């Protein structure tokens, strides 16, 4: 599959500390794959390793036929891996529209900026209404929507979302998850870090549970719902 992400025997971390240990997993093309696990056990680190922000110590990461581990972050984003990090990280003094346009910085994305912007506005209609508003005046949920919209503007092959619901009110989380469900229905390849296992179970095609930087369990979202002992052991749910 051209857009499948395959992680093989990956060891990665910071300085001498290895956070991920011999980790192997896949995120299939056209599917929503969720990473769950206790706080601090390596989910964000995995996204950083995939997007080239940290260099793996060993193992490899492939996108389709190409090995991307070892490439620089700019090259990896040009290959189509889009990383929407935790938090907002918008340009606070720019408008919504300017922030969205910043997502289309690669030449291939810039060429189709108009049509992709229309798609983003269809998916996130609130952003169309607020396109002239300065980012710092948006609500937390609206800012998160702009972050996702900006990621979509890159016209990537794989969209990685790191805890898109973090710190938001329940009703806003529902709105964000409706957007993610829409992306899933549209057949996008998505790798989602979600701290709430039950939310992941409902939305994901495939779920990987990370514990101490290793793979503790993999299965479908439906399978996870029936495995209460996993949730108790690893997540204290
Ligand atoms: N820049 C960094 N330098 C050194 N250690 C780091 C750095 N970033 C993260 N770590 C450490 O790596 C480990 C894994 O962190 P990571 O952010 O990947 O966890 P996580 O599973 O995404 O958790 P959370 O849901 O809390 O974000 C933690 O022990 C963390 O303290």
UniProtKB/TrEMBL annotation:
GO terms for biological process: L-amino acid transport. InterPro entries: AAA+_ATPase, ABC_transporter-like_ATP-bd, ABC_transporter-like_CS, BCAA_Transport_ATP-bd_LivF, P-loop_NTPase. Keywords: Amino-acid transport, ATP-binding, Nucleotide-binding, Transport. Coiled coil: none annotated. The keyword Hydrolase does not apply. Residues 5-237 form the ABC transporter domain. It comes from the Bacteria. GO terms for molecular function: ATP binding; ATP hydrolysis activity; branched-chain amino acid transmembrane transporter activity. Gene3D superfamilies: P-loop containing nucleotide triphosphate hydrolases. The keyword Nucleus does not apply. CDD domains: ABC_TM1139_LivF_branched. Belongs to the ABC transporter superfamily. PANTHER family: HIGH-AFFINITY BRANCHED-CHAIN AMINO ACID TRANSPORT ATP-BINDING PROTEIN LIVF (PTHR43820:SF4). This is Amino acid/amide ABC transporter ATP-binding protein 2, HAAT family. It comes from Paracoccus denitrificans (strain Pd 1222).
């Amino acid at each position: 599959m051209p857009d499948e992400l395959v992680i093989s025997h990956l060891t990665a971390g910071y300085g001498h500390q290895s956070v991920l240990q011999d980790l192997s997993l896949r995120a299939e093309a056209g599917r929503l794959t969720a990473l769950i696990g206790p706080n601090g056990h390596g989910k964000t680190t995995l996204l950083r390793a995939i997007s080239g922000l940290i260099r793996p110590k060993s193992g490899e990461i492939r996108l389709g036929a190409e090995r991307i581990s070892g490439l620089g972050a700019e090259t990896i984003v040009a290959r189509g891996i889009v990383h929407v990090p935790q938090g907002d990280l918008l340009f606070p003094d720019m408008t919504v529209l300017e922030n969205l346009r910043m997502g289309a910085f690669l030449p291939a994305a810039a060429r189709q900026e108009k049509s992709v912007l229309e798609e983003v506005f269809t998916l996130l209609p609130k952003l169309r209404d607020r396109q002239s508003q300065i980012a710092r005046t948006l609500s937390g949920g609206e800012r998160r929507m702009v972050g996702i919209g900006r990621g979509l503007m890159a016209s990537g092959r794989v969209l990685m979302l790191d805890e898109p619901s973090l710190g938001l009110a329940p009703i806003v989380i529902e709105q964000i998850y409706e957007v993610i469900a829409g992306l899933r229905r549209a057949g996008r390849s998505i790798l989602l870090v979600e701290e709430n296992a039950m939310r992941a179970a409902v939305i994901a095609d495939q779920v990987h549970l990370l514990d101490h930087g290793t793979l503790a369990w993999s299965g479908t979202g439906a399978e996870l719902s029936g495995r209460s002992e996993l949730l108790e052991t690893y997540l204290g749910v």
